[in-house]
Design brief:
homotetramer; 191 residues; mainly alpha; Arc Repressor Mutant, subunit A; Tetracycline Repressor, domain 2; 2 domains; 73% helix; 0% strand; elongated; DNA-binding
DNA sequence: GATGAATGAGCGTTCATTCAT
DNA sequence: CATGAATGAACGCTCATTCAT
């Protein structure tokens, strides 16, 4: 018998409930119920609800960044690397819609602001690959000479919007459309 | 002496507090306090908190759409019209950062989902100008042949991201940068 | 044009609403609305809600006692006088169900207790006719030798219960049944 | 040490407070305070205030009906059975004045109406003993030929009134008076 | 470690009462 | 006289957090 690991169950339940109902639609009692543990048990693994939420955020980010870096070849051309990152991102979200919803909920909350700040200040571990790619693109003059944040918005903003629409069922992202969408993003940033 | 109009004060206070703290970080007691009225007064002007929130949303949308349509010339080329819409949007949000934050909070909430659906179904009054422009662009073959939702994401997704960064102080959008950003969005969607 | 007399309108509205919804289901705003006056107007005629309620109670009591005394002949035999009182009471309530419901609401509330006490202490003006009749009945040995309150309960308790059932539609009190019911009450108290 | 059982404490406090102050004079905060628990605790045992009130009503009804049926002998004469029911009822209420007051409050409220209807329709479990006895009395021609509801009013209406007077201190019901009162009720319904 | 009964601050909402007009 | 906008105390209810078992 696999050990069901209570911590893991709690994380799973929290992710699912918050992704669907938002932070305020997911009381700890409901989370504990879904996870099959007592409410008090949550406090054995997490300091409080805020920490639970923040740790799940980090978990997702780690999984996401691991997947994105898989097969990322720094020696390849900037464009190719960008397409790799973009499609990997899109595919990850499509396959893990709960993670996407969770990230959205998270960014749109008091918690999220600080994290965005960390990225801009370059203090976030695994965000650097985005930064570096965009900086390199500007340096090599294959991308427009725009501020880092603007390039980032042009490159990844549409991907988030499009993912949301896919999850809500407004469009259906197949492999072909994924590639064409990321290519269109590239058109936005390339010189 | 101007009459301070309690309803107006309530709206102002609600907008400011929800923009900063989100729906759940802005209890009615706090709103009433900030507006300089009693809590009961809110219920003279709004049926309940949900209606207060929804009405403010509509107010913003009306103001926004009025401003965007100002000077919009349907006879001009698609590209020119797109630049008009994009820069107007960006300028409005920069000048009314609370409105922007409020819209973001709203879209990321149970309330917001229905509104997005309305847009996709083309049932929202003033959203049609976006739809029509994108459809026309595709028909005239000046834009990529991508689904409506994808084009919308490419065209306006970056604007939202960039606005957030501006409000958070990560970049400073001056007139020149606004134009260059919208032009970059155009590059993303144009054929 | 008849003068609509705001005070009268307020009383009418209050009676109707409280009879149907009870004290707590009839806010002053609703009463004022139904009466066609401003809420503040109520306070011109009544000190507060409690006084409004108490005065209406007295109004009903006065009307009731006036009607009951109409045709009451102190020189007639005790039994005849009792039948007169009982049938008059029953008929009044059947014709004025709102008054009946109002009295019930009133008696079953903090207000009502004091009034009952007044009756028992013989301090209520128009209740004396009941007292005197019952006392005379005992003195003349046509009624059972039971305490005043017990006789009162036997004599009038069933009338109240039966009226409620009539108003709720469980029985239909016609003239014949009214008489037979009051006669049955007499059987309960007569020696 | 007896375990004080919070649920029991809540019930006791609610019963006492509602009996004295009515439904609207007994806020949950006051009930919780009196029961020596937090307000939230009430919701562990009862779905909401309405359910709390309804469950207490059922508790009382069950206790009352159990006591009344104790020693009830269906083979005895109608009169004897009636005296049994009447005196048992009166004794129960005298010994449990809070239960009596509570029932009165309950019947005089939106809750109570439905229950009365149930009785009239014969759908209430333990009320049938009253119904059956009255029906049998009419069939055997020992009681007056009056509608069920009228007989019920004659039989039990005075008992309720007399109980209220006893509780309020207007009369003192000792064993002798109890019996004589119930016998007087019998006189009211017997042929 | 694990539990869930217990807590009470805080929420959205109502309504008797006041008072400027 | 008459109004009704304005008030805020008080309500029923929720839920993050604690702690005895």
């Amino acid at each position: 018998m696999e050990k069901p690991d209570k911590r893991e169950e709690i994380v799973r339940a929290t992710l699912a409930l918050i992704a669907v109902h938002g932070f305020h639609g997911a009381p700890l009692a409901m989370i504990a119920d879904r996870a099959g543990v007592g409410t008090g048990t949550i406090y054995l693994y997490f300091e409080n609800k805020d920490m639970l939420i923040a740790e799940i955020y980090k978990d997702i980010e780690d999984r996401l960044s691991a997947l994105i870096m898989e097969g990322y070849a720094p020696e390849k051309p900037v464009r190719e690397r960008f397409l790799h990152l973009g499609t990997a991102l899109l595919r990850y979200f499509i396959e893990n819609p709960l993670d996407f919803r969770y990230l959205e909920q998270f960014h749109n909350s008091p918690y999220g602001v600080g994290f965005r700040r960390d990225y801009m200040l370059g203090q976030k571990r695994n965000c650097n690959v985005y930064r570096e790619l965009l900086e390199e693109g500007v340096d090599r003059q294959v991308m427009k000479n725009l501020p880092q944040a603007t390039l980032f918005a042009l490159a990844f903003g549409p991907l988030l919007t499009v993912t949301r629409d896919h999850i809500l069922g407004f469009i259906s992202l197949d492999d072909s459309l994924i590639v064409r969408t990321v290519e269109a993003c590239w058109d936005g940033i390339r010189r």
